Structures are given as C-alpha cells and as structure tokens.
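cache lookup: miss for this entity combination. No prior model stored, computing from scratch. Input as submitted by user K.M.:
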Amino acid sequence: MDPAILPGMAASNSIVSALGDAGYRLTAPRLAVADLIATHDGHFTASDLAAAARDRRLGISRATLFRALDLLIELGVVERLDLPTGEHAYVPCAPAHHHHVVCSRCGRTAEVDDAGLLGAVREIERQSGFRIDAHRLEMFGLCRHCLARTAS
Amino acid sequence: MDPAILPGMAASNSIVSALGDAGYRLTAPRLAVADLIATHDGHFTASDLAAAARDRRLGISRATLFRALDLLIELGVVERLDLPTGEHAYVPCAPAHHHHVVCSRCGRTAEVDDAGLLGAVREIERQSGFRIDAHRLEMFGLCRHCLARTAS
DNA sequence: GTTTCAGTTGAGACTCAGTCTCGACAAGTC
DNA sequence: GACTTGTCGAGACTGAGTCTCAACTGAAAC
C-alpha cells in the first residue's frame, strides 16, 4: 500500500459514514476516493478522478477507483449524470430521490426536490398509457455565480 | 458500392424527407440507415443497427453508420437516450421538443409533450437560483401491452 | 461530354470508459 | 497459525465512438 494514503485524511465526510453504515470496510483506497470526491465542487468524470489520484500520488488503480465509484452509486451518495455532450459524469449527492441542475459553464450542481414534477409524470402516465416506475430529470443552465458574472 | 443497397427501399419515410429538406444528399448508405431505423419499433443501440446492417449484407461501415446517426440526431429525427443500465440507445422521433417514456420490458417508446413539466422546471429555477436553459426527462416503466400481458 | 470540387464513403487504426480476471494481501475469526 | 472473506493492483480485454486518409460520387460549371 502506498504510504501517501493515510486513513483519517477525510474523516468527516458523509461518504465515509455511508460506507461504514452499510458495513463496508473503510480501507485506505476507499477513504482516499471519498476524499477526492469531497474536494470536487460540482460534477466530475471518472478520468478527472483518476487524474486527481495520480496528481496526489495515491497509487490507486483504475479498477479500484471504478469499484469505489460503483459502491458509492449503489449506496446513493454518488449519482451518475449524462451531460448534454454525451459524456458521463458523477456527482456527490444525498441518498433521497431528487434531481440535478448542472451549470454548463462551471460544472457546479444543485440538488432539487420534486417541485411538482410528480404531477407532470402522473399526467404523462395518463397520456401515454405507460405505468412509469422510474424517471430521471436532468437540467442544464447557468448557476447563480455564472449568471452574476455574465451580467456584470 | 454494394449492390444490396438500392435507393428507394425506404422511399416513404420521414427520416429520408428530413435529410432531403436539410439539403443533405440522399445517398444509398443513408437511405439504408434510415430504413433500418424505420423498421425498429422502439429504441435501439448502435450495435443493434450495425448487426442489422450486417444481417442484411448492406456493406455499411461502422464509421458511416455513426456519421448517419449523428446527422439524424442533428436534424432532430433521432434522439439519444441513456438507459438506466448506463447504455446509450437511440430512438426515432419528431423534431419538436418532447420527452420519452421507455418500456423496460419490450423497449417500446412513446413520445409525450410537456404535460406541466415546464411549470415544475420554473419552480426548480426559482428554488435553485439557476437559469435553466435545457432539460432532459426520461421515464421508464411498462407499456400498455406489457402491462396487459402482466395482468393476464 | 469533360472537368472540378465539395460531399461522402469504407477501411482500419485509435482512444477511452468501463469490465474482468487473477494472484496477492489484510483483517477478522476460530 | 490456519482459514475465510473482502479488498487490492496490474494488466488484458471489450465495445462505443472518433479520426484519418485515400478513393469515389454526383451536381454544377464549363
């Protein structure tokens, strides 16, 4: 194990506690991945994460990184997004059902709750004759900060 | 050019007219791709399309297939979906803004219009402080046919 | 009819995200 | 200490999608 990975570097972090609560071992590579994710402000791609791990000389292999990501997706603390460009990205988030708004300029994301969407989905169910079991809404635009910067 | 590709095989087809209207050449490979897409009932993946082209011995290269798909996406007559499995799929559709409901069992898709979604998006805009320029809603469930089959 | 030229093609190499396998290691249990 | 189970890194592999390049096509200009 690479000495650069030290448990404790990301002690206070909801991702770590989600791992622990679910009964998974809090190994050094997992803590390191959790820490990398926690330091990201908005969404990130798998290769962003791999590059960050390389920069910090964490010595985490690609396979381990993807395994950790899968685990965190399964636990609901990370979600996979599909950007309009077709790229896959990941965002840290709360485990409850919600949707993401992604800033097209800086990559910041915000989580939003239902906000009347469920009504629209029920209406669509009625229109289409489908029984809708799952839905995914992704929104893209400009965040508060980028809007302010554009206006000034 | 492979003699199996004969223009006219897909004469009456909205995809073909969209190509023509946009000023693109109606070449045999493009007509063949349009025809392949038109014969698909629900969504399909790029490799489905490649396999179908191979079965019919159309002699269309992968690059040409992807080029044709890109073109049709640009024209808005085909849309790219992200299935819950993480796979990319494509669906033929109308160029106007709409959303897709995908049957998780048989793959059939239905297009639905806004149905009150815009109100929800405005509310989310207010909540989050973002200016939302684009959104994508995908819904997954069971279509009328699969529901009936399940019930019986 | 010939020439020209942009648009289009197929072949195949390439990239990149994500998966899989395998042998090694580490922690907990007996 | 032996065993079991979970986890690890290395590296090969897969498959979608892209890129390049030389060849071809067809419409327009001459």
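stored under new cache key. Chain A is about 40% helix and 20% strand.
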